[in-house]
Write a structure and sequence with these properties.
homotetramer, 132 residues, Beta-Lactamase, 39% helix
């Protein structure tokens, strides 16, 4: 089973609520099991450059079934995945992309958030992911 | 003024309602005055290839301030805009992209729909656009 | 000798004056002998999608040392240059790109205009080219 | 309100004057509120590779509403935004891109300059931005 649009909308609502609570307008993207876009929302006045980044974070998390920040630790100079960002039309490997799991632990998609600091992005993405 | 996320959500709801009424799952994208993505929704089981097409339709409509089908009439072999689709990283010029105007007639964005026949795509996009 | 920025500004002024005279806001791009961008102007309210088209028209004209409309006659289905638009990161082969020649007939660059009908685009580009 | 072409021309003139004063030919690009190109000027003998860089600097500054050098501090190896440059079709994150604000502090676009050292690029971009 992949994430449905109805589920994605609930996650996005939770992420938006968290973004409002911390007062940072965010871009919120959700992809399904196949890493294909399911939903996207840009809150008013959120960074324009974060449209692409939030989508790339969601895809990157699902591409490798781990949160984006984990990949970023491995892609540094001298690291085992140095410059992996050049693949797949461009990856984003800093925090803000979080894998989405159903009740049984199966990965059914990913959420990517961009618009604030990477800590804020991760916090808002996690608030969405926790709905599942 | 550009379209807000709240407005985009209302338009998307109306488009989804029309898509359900005609029983065709659709991809629905909305861009703002600057042709930047504001929202995207892929209904369950909608074509994966239509993610990109719906976004390109919305952008194309705003790029030239006319519905995509109008451009397609001009871009045929022998037509004045033959192969205009090679510009801007790829345009989609068949119906399904509709400009969004506020009450005063000012263009504030565009909606792009893909997932059915071009007639159905245009019908669903128009159902969204009429909310404004 | 290649076109200078000072010359390009004079051509752009002439093109803008013609665009105002026919009341169509235009995008105006000028490239040099090496097909590299020298100047670009988007008049207020000109089509956003014509930024890229005007630049591609100028490059296309200099790439083949002929006005873009001439190439478009050859790139039609069944024609000798069918779908040449796929080369060079995307060509635009309908009218609006005009080669720029110095007094001795040597090509020193090209001007590309987009924002109206192809006839209007060509008229405005020609008004710029005639300054030389 | 977004920046007008008339405003962009005044900013470009100021930037060119500064470039001449420090004797470095520059590429000068200005984008509007939607990160779409408004104007571009390449001074005679300015680097060809800086055409794209100046445009990317202007877009990058508007994409994240901060000067490009600020982003570059964060995108270094080990930094929170490492390799953000892979997004949005390529960002430039060293100095030379400066946000443009109107009298009320609202961001209405950005200017990008490339052709000299990054210090010179930033100096020339700032000379343009100060006109507003």
């Amino acid at each position: 089973m992949s994430i449905t649009l109805e589920q994605a909308e609930k996650l996005s609502e939770a992420a938006k609520a968290k973004a409002k609570a911390i007062n940072v307008p965010m871009n919120i993207a959700i992809v399904d099991e196949g890493a294909n876009l399911v939903s996207f929302h840009r809150m008013d006045n959120a960074w324009l450059g974060s449209v692409d980044i939030s989508i790339k974070k969601a895809k990157t998390a699902r591409f490798f079934d781990m949160n984006t920040g984990e990949i970023g630790k491995l892609s540094q100079p001298g690291g085992p995945l140095y410059n992996i960002e050049h693949s797949n039309g461009g990856l984003i490997t800093f925090p803000g992309g979080v894998v989405l799991k159903d009740g049984s632990g199966k990965i059914i998609g990913a959420i990517g958030v961009s618009g604030g600091s990477v800590e804020q992005d991760h916090e808002v993405a996690s608030a969405g992911a926790e709905v599942l």
